[in-house]
TrEMBL record:
UniProt keywords, alphabetically: Signal
Protein's name in the database: PASTA domain-containing protein
Signal peptide (from-to): 1-36
Length: 115
């Protein structure tokens, strides 16, 4: 017969009394931490030359996307379907884990400015 000890008795013996729930929680925490630490975000896709709506479809919904007009006219992007991507940051293939994406756009009928 295996005899356990109560919290006070274990403390007096220099032991720590844990419940099964505490062990499971600690195990889950260590596994979650290991996965989160090793998990990389999705890579930045190639968006240059593609419709802005495509960028919103391809990027993860949690990704912060900043869009600005690169034509020099400082227009506001009100309807993404009318715009195409000319510039993107970060570069293609970069890890997106929690990083914002910046897209430079022009109207669909316009040409992208020279880089």
């Amino acid at each position: 017969m295996v005899r356990g000890c109560g919290a006070r008795e274990c403390a007096s013996r220099g032991r720590i009394a844990l419940t099964a729930g505490a062990v499971l929680a600690a195990t889950a925490l260590s596994v979650t931490t290991a996965v989160a630490a090793g998990a990389a975000g999705p890579p930045m896709p190639e968006l240059t030359g593609k419709p802005l709506m495509n960028a919103f479809r391809v990027l993860d919904y949690r990704t912060q996307v900043e869009v600005h007009d690169v034509s020099g006219d400082k227009r506001h992007v009100l309807w993404p379907g009318n715009w195409k991507v000319c510039e993107q940051k970060p570069e293609v293939g970069a890890d997106l884990a929690g990083k914002p994406v910046t897209l430079g756009v022009v109207k669909n009928a316009e040409k992208c400015p020279a880089a």
